[in-house]
């Protein structure tokens, strides 16, 4: 069995359905904002050795790194980090949707759809939305290259 690079709880302990239920309780942006900060704290910091130019995503408001590992069963483990707490929380949400999927499953997933379901999309600045699009594009590139 392959040992995970930079393990995290997203996609297994913290699920898409769980986030949908949790964020569904919030009516105000400030509550969602606080939840993103809490999620960012659950995403372990990447070691500096994984913060490489190859893993850095351009087009994001803060520096963001995204890496992946293809596991023995053909699924992907994604890991990442960001210098910004909100962006790191947004990354954690995206990892929840993409973690543990095969290349074919990833090609059929819109990693951005969850932000609309959670009531986050309309509150994102243009630069954060652009950064999320860059992350989604990186995930689809990883899936295509498998």
TrEMBL record:
The keyword tRNA processing does not apply. It holds the Pfam family SufE. The active site is at 60 (cysteine persulfide intermediate). GO terms for molecular function: cysteine desulfurase activity. Residues 21-141 form the Fe-S metabolism associated domain. Its EC number is 2.8.1.7. InterPro entries: Cysteine_desulfurase_CsdE, Fe-S_metab-assoc_dom. Keywords: Transferase. Belongs to the SufE family. This is Cysteine desulfurase sulfur acceptor protein.
